[in-house]
Design brief:
- The protein has 194 residues and is of the alpha+beta class.
- It has one domain.
- The chain has helices at residues 30-37, 55-68, 81-87, 150-164; strands at residues 2-10, 14-15, 49-52, 88-89, 94-99, 105-113, 123-131, 136-143, 180-189.
- The strands form three sheets. The chain has a four-stranded antiparallel β-sheet. It has a three-stranded antiparallel β-sheet with strand order 2-7-6. It has a two-stranded antiparallel sheet with strand order 3-5.
- Helix 2 (55-68) crosses helix 4.
- The N and C termini lie close together (12 Å).
- 30% of the residues are buried.
Length: 194
């Protein structure tokens, strides 16, 4: 088993859209509600800092592996996709070190489908929290599958940053947010038998 600690820097704004059930105030309109509660869409830890949920980078790298469809040398037409999907995990959320209540988080008003389904006819204005670049964090990937080599992991993670992204309205979903570059990767080997 190997651990890869990736230091990344955002190259585009990062948007979040966590589900929340904040009740409306008495006689509060939809627009006023959006303007009042947009920060509630942030993922926030106990220290009040915004974090990237662990599943976001795990899914981004798995999606990049599928997108790239790199064939495994000596294995015919087999690709790395399933090895990234089940053999690479992220257990810990990644703090951005940015206070949710601070001025690094801005409101972005967007005209979006009311149902959340692209192409749906009815659209409404909603407010989302956006963090402008550069935002930075470290993500710890646990690589349980020996088929995933360091070189392939680096390539797929870099492509995840450019072609997939993180968060809402990310580039893989026809958005413009969430791209990042990989600054550094530190490797640690873990001997499970020792």
């Amino acid at each position: 088993m190997r651990i890869a600690i990736a230091s990344i820097t955002g190259t585009a704004p990062y948007c979040q859209s966590r589900f929340h059930e904040t009740p409306k105030n008495n006689k509060e309109g939809s627009d006023d509600y959006e303007r009042r509660t947009w920060r509630n869409r942030l993922h926030v830890n106990d220290e009040g800092e915004v974090f990237i949920p662990a599943l976001a980078p795990k899914n981004a790298i798995a999606e990049a592996a599928k997108y790239l469809s790199i064939q495994i040398p000596g294995k015919g037409k087999s690709t790395y996709t399933k090895h990234f999907e089940s053999g690479v995990v992220v257990f810990e959320d990644a703090s951005l070190g940015i206070q949710a209540a601070g001025d690094r988080v801005t409101e972005k008003r967007m005209f979006v489908p009311s149902t959340g389904i692209r192409g749906d006819g009815k659209r409404v204005m909603k407010s989302y929290p956006v963090i402008l670049p550069p935002w930075r964090t470290q993500i710890q990937f646990v690589i349980n599958d020996d088929v995933v080599t360091q070189d392939v992991f680096k390539l797929v993670l870099r492509q995840a940053g450019q072609l997939i992204g993180l968060g809402s309205f990310r580039v893989r979903n026809n958005g413009i947010f969430g791209t990042f570059k990989v600054d550094n990767i530190e490797w640690e080997e873990i001997d499970l038998l020792g």
